[in-house]
Design a protein that fits this description.
There is one protein chain. The strands form six sheets. A five-stranded antiparallel sheet has the order 6-7-13-11-12. A four-stranded mixed sheet has the order 1-2-5-3, covered by helices on one side. The protein has a four-stranded antiparallel sheet with strand order 15-18-17-16. By secondary structure, the protein is α+β, with helices and mostly antiparallel strands. It has three domains: about 80 residues, 2-Layer Sandwich (Uridine Diphospho-n-acetylenolpyruvylglucosamine Reductase, domain 2); about 120 residues, 2-Layer Sandwich (Uridine Diphospho-n-acetylenolpyruvylglucosamine Reductase, domain 3); about 80 residues, Alpha-Beta Complex (Uridine Diphospho-n-acetylenolpyruvylglucosamine Reductase, domain 1), CATH 3.90.78.10. It has seven helices and 19 strands. Helix 3 packs antiparallel against helix 5. It binds flavin-adenine dinucleotide. Flavin-adenine dinucleotide (FAD) binds next to strand 3, helix 4, strand 9, strand 13 and strand 15. The site of flavin-adenine dinucleotide (FAD) has 31 residues, from strand 3, helix 4, strand 9, strand 13 and strand 15.
Amino acid sequence: MSAIDTLATALAVHGELRRDEPLARHTTFGIGGPADIFLTVRDAAGLAIATNAAHDADVPLFVLGSGSNILVADAGIRGLTVDNRARAEAADSTGLNYTLESGTSFAAFARKMCRLGLDGLAWAVGIPGTLGGACVYNAGAYGGCLADVLTRVRLQEPGGGDSWVAARDLGLVYRGSAFTRGQFGGKTVLEAEVRLTPGDSRTLLDQAATYDEKRLTAQPRGRNAGSTFKNPPDHPAWKLIDEVGMRGATRGDAAVSDRHCNFFVNYGNAKAADVAWLIAEAQRRVKGQFGIQLEREVEFVGAW
Ligand SMILES: Cc1cc2nc3c(=O)[nH]c(=O)nc-3n(C[C@H](O)[C@H](O)[C@H](O)COP(=O)(O)OP(=O)(O)OC[C@H]3O[C@@H](n4cnc5c(N)ncnc54)[C@H](O)[C@@H]3O)c2cc1C
C-alpha cells in the first residue's frame, strides 16, 4: 500500500473522502486538475486531525478554502487536499467578539454583522472565500481590511498542537501575511476571533448595498479569482495592463476581462496553462514598457 492509500484509509472516518477529485469543481476559476485525496471536514477538530495525519504520513497537504484566490495546475494537486467547511461561530457575553471556525464564509458573516448592527465588516460583504483564506491574505476592500477587526487566530502546527496567536504577530500587510511570505510553513488556521463595535444596522446595510453596487458595476461576470495582481504603489494594475494593449486579450477560453483588466476570466473550458500564459505575458509587457514588476495576488497551486 502506498502512503497515499494508507492515509486515505485512515482519514475516511474523519470526513467525506474522494480520490482523484477534479479541483475545477472547487475553484471560482472553474479550473484545476485532480486532487489525489480530497477530504471534506466540517469542524476544526477534523481539520486538525487531517493536517496532523498528512504530516505524520509525510504526504503533502493543501488546505482549501473556497478556492477564490488560487489557480490550480491542470495536473492537479498531489497528496491530501482538505476542503475546509468548519463553520461554527460563537459570540462572547458582550456580543461584540466572535470566535469563528476558519471555514466560515467571510462575506456571509460580514453581511450578518451588518444586519445585527455590528460595525467593522461592511466592506467585506462581497469578498468570496473563507475566514482562513482572509487571514492568509489580509483580505480587504474599499479602505478596510481584516487586520482592522482580527484579534487572534488559533493555529495548528504541522504534526503538533495548536495555539492562539495575536493578530499583530501575523505580519498582516496589503494582501499578505507571514503565511504568504513562507514564514508560517505548514501552519493551518483553525479558528479566528474578530472584534466588532456597536453600530446602526440600517446604516451598515446601506453601506453594504453601496459596495454591492460598486462590485456589480466594476467586475466581470465570467469565472475568475478576483484581482490577478496586487496594485503596485501609485499604479493601478488594471491601468498598466490596459496600457500594454492586453484588454480583452485571449488564450484558448481564458481572457483578460475587457470590463476590468486586472480580472482574468475563464469563459468556458480554459486551462490553467492558458491563464498562466496570459499572466506571464502581462508581466512581460508591463516590465518591458514601464519597468514595473507586477506581483501576483492569485496564488499558483499544485503540480506546475
Ligand atoms: C469575484 C472575486 C472578488 C474578490 N474580491 C476580493 C476583494 O475585494 N478583496 C480581497 O482581498 N480578495 C478578493 N478576492 C480574492 C479572494 O476572495 C480572497 O483572497 C479570499 O480571502 C480567499 O479565500 P479562500 O477561502 O477562497 O482561499 P483559497 O483560494 O481556497 O486559498 C488561498 C490560500 O489560502 C490558504 N488557506 C485557506 N484556508 C486556510 C486555512 N484555514 N489555514 C491556512 N491556510 C489557508 C490556501 O492553502 C491557499 O494557500 C476576490 C475573489 C473573487 C473571485
